[in-house]
Structure formats: structure tokens, C-alpha cells
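TL;DR need C-alpha cells for one chain.
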Amino acid sequence: MPIGYYLLPERLFIIPLLRTFIIRKEEGRENIGKDTPYIFAVNHNSHLDEFAVMPSIVMETHRKTHFFADRKHWFEGKLPFRFLAWRFQAIPVDRTGGKGEEALRTGEKYLEMGHNIIIYPEGTRGNGFELQKGKVGVAKLALWSGVPVVPVGVWGTHLLMPKGKHSPRIKKIVKVKIGKPLHFEHLRDRVGDREVLREVTDRIMREIAALLGIEYVLDRKK
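>> reply
TL;DR here they are.
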């Protein structure tokens, strides 16, 4: 099956519904194209974030797109979440088992296959008003693969389905802003350097913050 038709039901039905009832504005779609897979680095405030950014990604890249998902919530939780995890071939992350790198390696394999990856550098959901300190997994994935990283800022999902809630409100307020791809191919041989990983991660986080119009505080503990 041609890769562009993988999400045909979503392109015909789900994406139009999201744009009708949830997504108010999408900016920066011209920054991505069909010529390469991408790592989409997104701020994380809600379980709706995946679906806020999916429409632009699917329509512009025509590539299979996977996201990292907490195993307990998406794979062992309520049936709708388990179905969506299966449908999008989400990558399970075991928060208690110390297997984060195993999940990243799965993401690397998908990138090698020409698929996109959505990753949340903060690692967990925030409050929608500030960014948490980014974890270096996004930098590892970028340097392992050589794939460009696209920063994405999402606003509004924290109001529709905040942390602790499992049923979304329906209101057309979500804004998605896609930045320009960041390239780190020149640092691929320094993936073992912890300082380099930190610098790459912080640059990505600063770009996300700029899209949101906020400041990224580097000494934030959480």
C-alpha cells in the first residue's frame, strides 16, 4: 500500500472533524514536506496533543506517523486509548521499568523505514503555561538517525483535556504552530557526549518556547 494512503480513514473523516470542532488555527505547514521523515518535538500538556498535531503532519508529509505513549495509559487503560495506540502503532514507554532507551531504539527503526515520529521532550504532561526541562531522549534520537527535528508548539489542549481528565471538552480553541526543521547531522559522532545531548535538547526546547511565545527556563527542576 502506498505510504500516503495509510491514514486514509483519518484523512477523510477524523481530520475534518478535528479541524471542525477542536483545531482553530494551524501555522507553519509550509515548513514540512514529503521529501524526508521528521522527528516532531512537541510540548506536552494533554492526551489530545497527538491529535492536535496529526492533521498537519499527515496532510503535509503523507507518511506513517508514530508517537511515544505511556504503556499504562495507552496500552493498558480504557478501550478507546488502546484502540488509538494500536491504530497509530504507538511506541510504548514503560515509565517504571527504566526502558526508555528501548523505546527510542524502536523510534529509530521507524525513522529508518521512512516514518515520522512525534516525541514529547518534557517526558510528561505539563500545565499549559510553562515548559518543563527537556529530556535528552529527543537529542539521542536526532543524532542516531540524522533525521531533522521539527519543533511544534501546541496551545489549548490543556484547557480541553488537562492532566487527570480522560474525557475532552469540545471547543474550537486549539492552536498549532510548526517551526522550521533543525539539523544536527554534524553532531552524529558526538552522541555519547552528555553536554552535546543537553545542548541539542535545550536548543529544541527554546525553539518550542519561541513558537509558544514563552521563555524556556533552563534551571527548571521538573
